[in-house]
């Protein structure tokens, strides 16, 4: 249900004033009429229709963060780390356009400036990151860091010996329950024997062993989607950490995927309940330091935007069709 402008005004603190109200007892006829107010778009809560690993991770981290991103769709400022992740992913993907023998570290480094130009063209907002850097020194350092991450990849994998079956693959499937799962897989390798390996690049550092399970959640999510789509349990899940030079692998079995499916269904039920009731609890952790929404978060003295009920069905959960994240 759409919410009318009047309802929004009431939620915001009372009905809108008449446009031609008299001032201090003056004759209304001689008071210049205020211009018609610009209609404020009514906030509409959108019921999520699908789940991606990132958004599932958001809800597990903090339900209110999930709400801000998926329901309210509050804008977020680009960050240097996230944008560098996007850039590095683009370079690693494009390198496979070259013949195998030419997939060298110098060639990969040389792709960085051009891919940065393309990124700025497709997402002009990332240019703001360096708006206060007229001499370009910070930008130059940032580009060098991106090149170093690209170069480190060659110590972990040899792209001249890889022929990915898929790169930046958008996947989507529907579980028996009706829950739609979707996401973007960095790379899919398929061996001549048909065994599937799912690979994801991370520009950060590998987690400590006690946190590895959290990192693998995303990979098991993708493995579940691949299993549903191709009826094949991926042989290996591989996380390549360019920040620390580590590779984390896991060989899943069917029981892992069934477990992750049950977990996602429970998560989806919790999301559905919160969407219907509007009860999105903040869950403060040290990750709040990276949250763009503190000004709307009660934990930081903020007020969330009005939450109109009931919610309206949506076509997507806001999963990025184009990658934008630190990876
Ligand atoms: S600041 Fe912390 S508690 Fe508040 S919405 Fe962000 S992640 Fe959640």
UniProtKB/TrEMBL annotation:
Protein name: RecB family exonuclease
Organism listed in the record: Streptomyces parvulus
One term of GO molecular function: exonuclease activity
Keywords tagged on the record: ATP-binding, DNA damage, DNA repair, Exonuclease, Helicase, Hydrolase, Nuclease, Nucleotide-binding
Any Pfam family matching the protein: PDDEXK_1
Biased composition (Acidic residues): 1-10
Residue ranges, annotated region (Disordered): 1-23, 302-327
Gene3D superfamilies: 3.90.320.10
All copies of domain PD-(D/E)XK endonuclease-like, residue ranges: 50-298
